[in-house]
Amino acid sequence: MKIVVLVARLLLGLLFAVFGLNGFLHFIPAPPSIPGDAGVFFGVLLKTHYVYLTAGVQLIAGVLLLANQYVPLALVLLAAMLANILTFHITMMPKGLGIPIFATALWFIVSWSMRERFAPLFSRNAS
Known about the structure:
Layout: H1 2-25, H2 36-47, H3 50-67, H4 71-91, H5 98-113, H6 115-118
């Protein structure tokens, strides 16, 4: 099981490091046009430079996973990213849902192995 978690952590880290870096360097070609609301939404992300925040968070979390440092923090950051990525693809662009589902499966594998670190988040009392 340790090997499965290691491979999942490295794949997840690599995936987000590459896509985060792509947000700055644009080495993965973008599709010629994104239809409908998905295109409008993506255009707003680019125009307002919001894409740099999301790419930066993805890059930092991916590097943390690859370095095996602050893994719980990286997983929390990626949980928010994955929620938004999945919502975008489910509601506006279902065609590209494969990679987000794969990334979410990897996230669950790594997170499940660290569930004891997240247990305090689910305590009812703050003390």
